């Protein structure tokens, strides 16, 4: 059984080839409002931690504008993305962002804000489509898709724009959402290797690596990631964030470069559960361009109503130890044992908050999930069919790539761009290309997946032990049952590796574990149980405030604040 963390140095020559700047340079510090700073003004929010509500308060009060926000975030990206620690978290910024911000500022002045996301900058993972006229690419990190023209904005992007959000830029990712081959998390041909901000060159996890890193240190207000198996959950944990991997069908995947329609989902990655709930409330909902969204409940709740510090009081929370904890690297005396220790302490906090912890509450299918190869069969088959359809559906693509076979050939023909030393693998591409469509074996694997993850897995444990949710560390096999069943996961900060942890190798340029690198706690439930899971995550987050215990390493913390662009 393989865990797939899916959807989870670039030289000057590569930047020139892309003809798209990684960062929109700023030379004019003045705010469009022309205001002078006043010592008597209320304190401006610190962008490292600033919440959506804090930013909205400042915008409503006229302390600063959305133009100021865009300038400040651009400057912060400039400081650490390709300079200093070279985190390589942002693959490109939006050249239209300042113009959009000015328009939204004017609209706010006349008619007020559309929503809590009005004028708020959001970074998108680079597999989430935006229209070419805006000036950004959608490439999944690959030069093969550079300057390709998508037919429309992604469904979730349309919802963000309607709510008044500003697309700040595109985040780096594991190329093709970590489905190209045996490559390290956070590496793509276009973006290079994304690094964690909590220890130099630490693994950010993936595939939503850049979404995690940008949000973790305030290069954006919030970000969107995508998950097929682990790609929101793992980088949320590794970057000290709160994140929601929604049920398949709660958020639209239309306009998102696919792996599998049966597992792909799009969700928020934020510095707090509150911010994640605000974003999820905007992007959830039906989309005629994604028929899986027709299965969601008729009314999408306002997830901010789940933000209850007493949510765990009276709840029954189960601990599925078999396979996921017992005998794993998270227990015992190994380098990851700090996660297991912190998890046991988290269970005490959950009890203190009034929950009954049922321990163990094992999944009947746990051993079968660990042995199963069904997920690989499903993903390999789906990817070939769906990526071929994506490529054929592009309005234009200068590389001429129109199929998975073309992608493989492009990478082999352009090794300096796509296959530098130590980053040559295309094993997933090749395995997928070898599939022969929707065979009996495929449909059997798909059916088994749903049974193992759902009826014999998460749902079985919830029913057998009369549970409201399950809880596990975010690392390890935690994401697999929810992935194959299409069920949600809500993740919050759990802890950090100690200073004496043995540093391990995670890839040619990355390390893991490492001192100070974060890890997360995940609440899992049945389909469309996000409301309850958000409440449980919020109660735990507010009790522990783990995120605030540690910041990134000093060189990775941008210095630019709002006052610097407003002066």
Automatic annotation (TrEMBL):
The keyword Signal applies. Residues 1-25 form the signal peptide. Residues 68-433 form the Amidase domain. InterPro entries: Amidase_dom (IPR023631), AS_sf (IPR036928). SUPFAM superfamilies: Amidase signature (AS) enzymes. Keywords: Signal. Gene3D superfamilies: Amidase signature (AS) domain. Pfam families: Amidase. This is Amidase signature enzyme. It comes from Lentinula boryana.
């Amino acid at each position: 059984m393989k865990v797939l963390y899916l959807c989870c140095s670039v030289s000057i020559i590569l930047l020139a080839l892309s003809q798209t700047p990684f960062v929109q340079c700023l030379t004019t510090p003045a705010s469009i409002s022309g205001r002078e700073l006043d010592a008597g003004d209320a304190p401006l929010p610190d962008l490292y931690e600033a919440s959506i509500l804090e930013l909205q308060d400042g915008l409503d009060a006229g302390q600063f504008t959305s133009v100021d926000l865009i300038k400040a975030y651009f400057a912060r990206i400039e400081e650490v993305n390709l300079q200093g620690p070279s985190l390589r978290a942002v693959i490109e910024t939006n050249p239209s962002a300042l113009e959009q911000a000015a328009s939204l500022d004017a609209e706010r002045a006349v008619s007020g804000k559309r929503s809590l996301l009005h004028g708020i900058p959001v970074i998108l993972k680079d597999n989430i489509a935006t229209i070419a006229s805006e000036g950004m690419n959608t490439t999944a990190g690959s030069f093969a898709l550079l300057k390709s023209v998508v037919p429309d904005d992604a469904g979730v992007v349309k919802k963000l724009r309607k709510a008044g959000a500003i697309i700040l830029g595109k985040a780096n990712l594991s190329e093709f959402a970590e489905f190209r081959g045996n490559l390290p998390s956070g590496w793509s041909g276009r973006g290079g290797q994304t690094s964690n901000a909590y220890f130099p060159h630490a693994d950010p996890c993936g595939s939503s690596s850049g979404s995690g890193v940008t949000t973790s240190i305030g290069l954006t207000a919030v970000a969107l990631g995508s998950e097929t198996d682990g790609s929101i959950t793992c980088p949320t944990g590794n970057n000290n964030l709160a994140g929601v991997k929604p049920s398949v069908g709660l958020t639209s995947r239309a306009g998102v470069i696919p792996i599998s329609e049966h597992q792909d989902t799009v969700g928020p990655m934020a510095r707090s559960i509150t911010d994640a709930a605000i974003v999820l409330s905007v992007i959830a909902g039906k989309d005629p361009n994604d028929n899986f969204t027709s299965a969601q409940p008729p009314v999408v709740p306002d997830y901010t109503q789940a933000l209850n510090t007493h949510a765990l009081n009276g709840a029954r929370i189960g601990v599925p130890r078999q396979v996921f904890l017992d005998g794993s690297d998270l227990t015992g005396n190994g380098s990851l044992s700090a996660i297991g220790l912190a998890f046991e302490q988290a269970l005490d906090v959950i009890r203190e908050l009034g929950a009954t912890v049922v321990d163990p509450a094992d999944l009947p299918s746990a051993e079968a999930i660990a042995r199963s190869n069904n997920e690989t069969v499903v993903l390999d088959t789906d990817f070939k069919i769906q990526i071929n359809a994506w490529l054929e559906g592009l309005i234009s693509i200068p590389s001429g790539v129109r199929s998975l076979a073309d992608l493989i050939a492009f990478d082999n023909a352009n090794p300096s761009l796509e296959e530098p030393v130590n980053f040559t693998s295309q094993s997933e591409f090749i395995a997928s290309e070898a599939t022969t469509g929707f065979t009996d074996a495929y449909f059997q694997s798909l059916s088994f997946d749903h049974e193992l993850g759902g009826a014999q897995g998460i749902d079985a444990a919830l029913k057998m032990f009369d549970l409201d949710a399950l809880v596990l560390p975010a690392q390890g096999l935690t994401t697999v049952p929810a992935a194959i069943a299409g069920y949600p996961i809500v993740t919050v900060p759990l802890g950090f590796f100690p200073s004496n942890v043995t540093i391990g190798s995670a890839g040619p340029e990355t390390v893991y574990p490492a001192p100070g690198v974060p890890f997360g706690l995940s609440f899992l439930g049945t389909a469309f149980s996000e409301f309850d899971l958000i409440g449980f995550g919020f109660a735990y987050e507010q009790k522990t405030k783990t995120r605030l215990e540690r910041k990134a390493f000093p060189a990775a913390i941008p210095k630019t604040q709002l006052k610097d662009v407003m002066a």
